[in-house]
Amino acid sequence: MISLTSPVETRAHRWPAGAKLAALCLASTGLFLTDSLTVHLAALAVVLALYAAPGRVFLAAGMHHLRVVLPFVLLLMVWHLVTGELRAGVLIILRMVVLVALANLVTMTTRLSDMTDLVHRLTAPLRRLGLPAHLLETAIPLVIRFIPVLVARAETLAEAWRARSRRRPGWRLIFPLMLHALDDADHVGEALRARGGPLGHKRPE
């Protein structure tokens, strides 16, 4: 499995993970508090500038990751065109794209170990209450690492489909992709059990 962290070193890689997540929360709150298209367009321009600042390689990788929102953008646009609420649709799309792009930017500039350490600090109160916070610390890195794996699986299945048919794969890939995900989950579960499993391991304070 691979990480979503960009290999292109940026200044943001050295910023604390907590500060980046706090900035993401503030930006999300700010965008939900305003319905101004001008503000949302300005936010989109700022986000694009942040992606472009480290160079073409970083920008291309960021745009590649953001392809997953395109189906939702098209669906929302079609729905709001049908209902005659174009301005509301544009506002929702801009808000969604900016927030997903910012979250992706945080992921690309934050090492998984830094994110895990942050989760460890944030879950300290749960440990004091005797709750199994180490399960959460295990689950979050696994989810982050599984995302690129599932994307790669989907691309492989799509290529295999296009090699055998002229029709678009669409929803037909959902079931085999789900089977692959369950199979990978079984393998990861066996690997965890072979190493004692998260239930038998607690991170030292």
Automatic annotation (TrEMBL):
Assigned protein family: Belongs to the CbiQ family.
Intracellular or extracellular location(s): Membrane
Primary location class: membrane
GO cellular component terms, semicolon-separated: plasma membrane
Membrane topology term: Multi-pass membrane protein
Sequence intervals crossing the membrane: 39-59, 66-82, 88-106
Name of the protein this chain belongs to: ABC transporter permease
Keyword Nuclease included in the entry's annotation: no
Keyword set, alphabetical order: Membrane, Plasmid, Transmembrane, Transmembrane helix
